Amino acid sequence: MIHMTETLAVQTVEGFLTPDETAELTKLLDEHLVATGWRPARPSDGLVAPGEVQEILAAGVERALPAIRRVFPSVATATPWDYHDLGPGDSIEPHLHGVDEPNRRRQRVARVAFHLQEADQGGAFYVETASSEALWTDRTAGSGSAFTPGTRFAREISHHGGPEAATVLAQVPRTRWTSAPPARTAVVYGAQLVHGVETVRAGRLRKLITNLLSDG
User: Fold this and answer.
1) Greater model confidence, 101 or 26
2) Rounded to 5 degrees, what are φ and ψ at 145?
3) CB-CB contact of 197 with 86 (8 Å)
4) How high is the pLDDT of residue 128?
């Protein structure tokens, strides 16, 4: 069973990839970007990473699972990784994905952000906490859910959540926790946490993101 605390937790995995893996992953992504000419239409847009990149990252997840499961014990697998590329002036506004279908057996428990390249200035990843009831719905997990019965679920406050949800978030006082992890560190954060990326002021931020799922 998935406990609510897993969806609100934060963990880091230092040395998620080796220096050689990181160099190879960068090379493969650079080649893919040249071949495809991909450019994000907006900072939150991602590109599904090519197969060889997915293999390197999958190996990293497999090695990291014992550490991840100390905080997120229900995690069983990861989804394919998306690549994000932010430049000066780009940011990802605070948002919250939440849980779409609480009664589905396999659930998104957390997400992983691996920063391939940090911006020269700005671009810090953050999570935000708040005690406000406004972030929560009245939905609770039933007996058929993968979550512990009675678990509550947060609002979806993303680009799919609509203007009303965004207005709710803007009115909630929140505490921001900004990360500055060492190179080659993966940051794991619960699926019901508000999070985002501060504005890149100089340089380039390159990151990859995946979802961690429970066993179906």
Assistant:
1) 26
2) -85, 155
3) yes
4) 98
> Closest Cα to residue 92, out of 71, 111, 79, 77?
111
C-beta neighbour count of 96 within 10 angstroms: 21
Q: Please give the structure tokens belonging to residue 5.
A: 């605390």
| Helix ranges (DSSP H) in the chain | 19-36, 51-71, 162-170
CB atoms within 10 A of CB 43: 19
Distance of alpha carbon 170 from the chain centroid: 21
Which pLDDT value is given to residue 25?
97
12 bridge partner residues: 187
Give yes or no for residue 160 having a pLDDT over 70: no
What is the C-alpha to C-alpha distance for residues 186 and 94, in angstroms, rounded to an integer?
A: 19
Contacts of 55 (CB under 8 A, 6+ apart): none
CA–CA dist 151, 139 (Å, integer): 8
Q: Give the Cα separation of 191 and 79 in Å (integer).
A: 14
Give me 171's structure tokens: 């009115």
Is residue 125 within 8 A of residue 167, CB to CB? The reply is no
